[in-house]
C-alpha cells in the first residue's frame, strides 16, 4: 500500500541545539534504514520549507501509523497522509 505523506517540522525555537541535532541525527538514521528496507520509497524536501513529501510502501495503515509514531521528530511534526492507488492512465508497472 502506498501513502503520500507530508511532514512539516516545527521545532521549538528555544529547544537546546544539541537536543535538536541529536533528534535530527536519529531521524536521519531511521529514515535511511527504512529507505534501505524499501518502506520509505521517496523523501523530498519541499523547497523553501522545513518540510518533506514522502512516499511510504507499507502492508497496512497500522504499519504506517506505527512507523510514523516511531520517528524521533514525530512530537514536533504536523503530518498529513493521503492513500494512493493506481491511476488508470499510468504507464508505470512498478507502482502497485
Ligand atoms: O527534515 C525533515 O523533513 C524531517 C525528516 C524526515 C526524515 C529525515 O531525515 O528528516
Q: How would you characterize the overall build of this protein?
A:
- The protein is α+β, with helices and mostly antiparallel strands and 96 residues long.
- The protein has one domain: Dimeric alpha+beta barrel (Alpha-Beta Plaits, 2-Layer Sandwich), CATH 3.30.70.
- The protein is 31% helix and 30% strand.
- It is built from 2 helices and 4 strands.
- Strands 2-3-1-4 form a 4-stranded antiparallel beta sheet.
- A hairpin with a 5-residue loop joins strand 2 and strand 3.
- The longest helix is centred in the N-terminal third of the chain and has 20 residues.
- The chain is elongated and about 50 Å long.
- The N and C termini lie close together (7 Å).
- The model has no long low-confidence stretch (mean pLDDT 96).
- The structure holds ligand LWBT4IAB.
- The site of the ligand O=C(O)CC1=CCC(=O)O1 has 8 residues, from strand 1, helix 1 and strand 3.
Any key phrases for this structure?
96 residues; alpha+beta; Alpha-Beta Plaits; four-stranded antiparallel sheet; 31% helix; 30% strand; binds ligand LWBT4IAB
Give a quick rundown of the structure.
The chain is an alpha+beta fold. The chain contains two helices and four strands; from the N terminus they run βαββαβ. A hairpin with a 5-residue loop joins strand 2 (40-45) and strand 3 (51-57).
Amino acid at each position: 500500500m502506498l501513502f503520500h505523506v507530508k511532514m512539516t517540522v516545527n521545532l521549538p525555537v528555544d529547544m537546546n541545539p544539541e537536543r535538536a541535532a541529536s533528534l535530527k541525527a536519529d531521524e536521519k538514521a531511521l529514515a535511511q534504514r527504512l529507505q534501505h528496507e524499501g518502506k520509505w520509497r521517496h523523501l523530498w524536501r519541499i523547497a523553501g520549507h522545513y518540510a518533506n513529501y514522502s512516499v511510504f510502501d507499507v502492508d497496512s495503515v497500522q504499519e504506517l501509523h506505527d512507523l510514523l509514531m516511531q520517528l524521533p521528530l514525530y512530537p514536533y511534526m504536523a503530518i498529513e497522509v493521503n492513500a494512493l492507488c493506481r491511476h488508470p492512465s499510468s504507464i508505470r508497472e512498478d507502482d502497485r
